[in-house]
Amino acid sequence: MAEARTLDAICEQIIPSDETPGAKWANVVNFIDRQLVGPYRRQQGAYRTGLKAIDEAAAKFGKDFASLDPPIQTEVLAGLTGDAKRFFTTAIAHTMQ
Prior knowledge:
The protein is mainly alpha-helical. The chain contains six helices and no strands. The chain has one domain. It has helices at residues 2-14, 23-26, 28-36, 44-58, 70-78, 82-96. The longest helix has 15 residues, at 44-58. The protein is globular and about 35 Å long. The mean pLDDT is 96.
C-alpha cells in the first residue's frame, strides 16, 4: 500500500490536476499496476527499488514522499540521481501512456 501511495503522488506530480483532470483522476496507478503483472512484469523489481529510493530521498524532510507537500515533492524528484532518476524517467513514460 505504501508503494501505491508513493507512485500515486509521483504520477500526480507528472500529470497534476488543475483545470483538467490529472493522473489520480485517470487512475494511472491502477493502469501501471495492471501492466506490472503483464507486459511490464520484468520491471517489477525496478519499481520496488525506485519507489523505495524516492521515499528514502524524501526522508531528509522527515516524511515519506506521499506525505510531503507538492513543492517539496517536486524538489525531491528534481534531486534524484542514478537508479532513482532512471526509475523516475520510466515512471514518466508509463504515466504518459
